[in-house]
């Protein structure tokens, strides 16, 4: 420990505040304390390896005194969010979760995003991208908020969404109507869904009394579709409850997000060495999740008052409905822990089988897909700690004159690992030929990594120099089959998309009026001939800006 840091610790104030350990001016750890002097003196006799590393690396210590522990809590969270110190506890997503973002433009637009990287108002995270897409599609039909990102100052006429009644048209001056649409959307996503349901019921009944059955049916369908989308998440409570339910065990945290009686998300995170207070700071205060009025926990938290953060209640269940939710959260946590246990057992066995020096924490899997040598693609999937990490998946397009899986594997391995670090283990879908192709490619670029394959015929585990036949219920074989199936699924889906896009391009080339720009728009929006065939004339026209050419496209199909 540097002498000047020791002196600062001994002179630390006996007041609440935040302390920052720095290395060359960069924060490496930020903490809070009810009494700074007491907390910092614990660093004079480090009890953990983490604390020892912090005081060995740090060359400066800064303290910030605040009025109370609540202010220290919020300041700590904001500083961690800003500087991302390497020794602070961080949440690690066990899967990818989407958010709904409302931009902070003068006239906001709405979009689905993967991470909270821009300014704006965020809602989520949600469990499923498809759920969010379906939800926004229904809500846009009801409210009319804009989803385009165009510069409205340059727009002279409204798009097809306006004519279809899906946008209020702020681009032509209907700004107040759009502000109301955004207000209603925020209310709905915050859990106040009753207003929208009441609105749809009222419209349906009003048109029905007027014998306007066509419009009555329209609002009835919107009401049913909205209910169906929300119910698709799997849990609906009779009581219109809105809350988050948080449970944890070891370093795994599970959150159930319930809004107006509907389960809109079940998410899980890993946090090494973290407690419930750490999670609340990292997840809610730092802006990972929107703050509900109620947060249900297994037990009370000591001392800390969370009302200033926006919570109205934080604590154990107060009703049978909240108790049911807590039990559901616990069951989800048990399932997650069970799956982690199975995977850890499999990874440890795999490490022994391959005589690996390092634990196979990160495994990358490669598969090749083609149609008689045409449209060849490769998929690369990533498993960390036995779980898929879909945000790291990659796809590769391979140009070749004739089918050659071995050469395709060599090409992908060299392209990938010439630029990216090696995983702990590389998996290839195939037998000894595919494994050797990967090993040779690694040697060509001067790198070395354990490689394993799975021969399809008898599910034989293949290494560079040997093969092993495992029982069908062996944890290693189950894990490798899961990785193989995931690489195959990802490769086939990309191959299908590439093949369909090529077919779509050839058809569009024959339609008069379709140039490179319109062709690109159609391919990006629809992706396949089948999607265009099932689309309406209005939807195609909206994408390309011409009803006449849209009719030509449908005629060509």
UniProtKB/TrEMBL annotation:
UniProt-recorded Gene Ontology molecular function terms: DNA binding; excinuclease ABC activity
Domain GIY-YIG: from-to ranges: 14-89
Domain UvrC family homology region profile: 276-442
Coarse class of the protein's main subcellular location: cytoplasm
Domain UVR span(s) in chain numbering: 194-229
InterPro entries reported in the protein's UniProt record: GIY-YIG_endonuc (IPR000305), GIY-YIG_endonuc_sf (IPR035901), GIY-YIG_UvrC_Cho (IPR047296), RuvA_2-like (IPR010994), UVR_dom (IPR001943), UVR_dom_sf (IPR036876), UvrABC_protein_C (IPR050066), UvrC (IPR004791)
Gene Ontology cellular-component terms listed: cytoplasm; excinuclease repair complex
Subcellular location(s) per record: Cytoplasm
Domain of life per record: Bacteria
Keyword DNA damage part of the UniProt annotation: yes
Quaternary structure and partners: Interacts with UvrB in an incision complex.
Protein name (database record): UvrABC system protein C
The species this protein was found in: Thermotoga petrophila (strain ATCC BAA-489 / DSM 13996 / JCM 10882 / RKU-10)
Gene name tied to this protein: uvrC
């Amino acid at each position: 420990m540097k002498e000047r840091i020791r002196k600062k610790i001994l002179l630390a104030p006996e007041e609440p505040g935040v302390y920052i350990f720095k290395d060359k001016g960069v924060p490496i750890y930020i903490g809070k304390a009810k009494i700074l002097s007491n907390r910092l003196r614990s660093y004079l006799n480090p009890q953990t390896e983490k604390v020892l590393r912090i005081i060995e690396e740090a060359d400066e210590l800064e303290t910030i005194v605040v009025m109370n522990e609540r202010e220290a809590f919020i300041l700590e969270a904001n500083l961690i969010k800003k500087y991302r110190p390497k020794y602070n506890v961080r949440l690690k997503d066990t899967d990818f979760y989407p958010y709904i973002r409302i931009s902070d433009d003068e006239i906001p637009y709405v979009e689905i995003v993967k991470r909270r990287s821009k300014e704006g108002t965020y809602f989520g995270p949600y469990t499923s991208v498809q759920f969010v897409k379906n939800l926004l599609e229904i809500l846009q039909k009801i409210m009319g908020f804009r989803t385009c990102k165009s510069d409205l100052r340059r727009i002279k006429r409204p798009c097809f969404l306006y004519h279809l009644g899906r946008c209020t048209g702020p681009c032509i001056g209907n700004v107040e109507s759009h502000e109301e649409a955004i207000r209603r959307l925020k209310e709905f996503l915050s859990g106040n869904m009753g207003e929208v349901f009441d609105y749809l019921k009222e419209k349906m009944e009003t048109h029905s009394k007027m014998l306007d059955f066509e419009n009555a049916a329209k609002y009835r369908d919107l009401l049913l579709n909205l209910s169906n989308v929300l119910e698709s998440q799997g849990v609906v409570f009779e009581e219109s409850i809105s809350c988050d339910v948080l449970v944890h065990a070891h370093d795994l945290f599970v959150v159930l997000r319930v809004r107006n009686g509907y389960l809109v998300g079940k998410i899980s995170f890993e946090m090494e060495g973290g407690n419930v207070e750490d999670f609340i700071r990292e997840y809610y205060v730092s802006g990972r999740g929107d703050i509900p009025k109620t947060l249900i926990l297994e037990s009370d938290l000591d001392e800390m008052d969370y009302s200033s953060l926006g919570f109205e209640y934080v604590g154990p269940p107060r009703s049978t409905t909240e108790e049911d939710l807590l039990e559901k959260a616990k069951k989800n946590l048990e399932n997650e822990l069970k799956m982690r246990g199975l995977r850890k057992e499999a990874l440890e066995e795999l490490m022994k089988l391959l005589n690996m020096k390092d634990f196979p924490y990160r495994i990358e899997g490669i598969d090749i897909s083609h149609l008689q040598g045409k449209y060849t693609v490769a998929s690369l999937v990533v498993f960390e700690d036995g779980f898929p990490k879909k945000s790291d998946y990659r796809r590769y397009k391979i140009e070749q004159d004739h089918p050659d899986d071995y050469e395709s594997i060599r090409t992908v391995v060299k392209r990938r690992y010439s630029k990216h670090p090696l995983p702990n283990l590389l998996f290839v879908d195939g037998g000894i030929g595919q494994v050797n192709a990967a090993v040779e490619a690694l040697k060509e670029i001067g790198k070395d990594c354990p490689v394993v394959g799975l021969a399809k015929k008898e599910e034989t585990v293949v290494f560079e120099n040997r093969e092993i036949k495992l029982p069908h219920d062996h944890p290693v074989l189950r894990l490798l089959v899961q990785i193989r199936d995931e690489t195959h699924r990802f490769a086939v889906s990309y191959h299908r998309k590439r093949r369909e896009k090529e077919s779509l391009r050839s058809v569009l080339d024959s339609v008069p009026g379709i140039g490179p720009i319109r062709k690109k728009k159609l391919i990006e929006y629809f992706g396949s001939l089948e999607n265009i065939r099932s689309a309406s004339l209005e939807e195609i026209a909206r994408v390309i800006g011409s009803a006449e050419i849209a009719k030509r496209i449908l005629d060509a199909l």
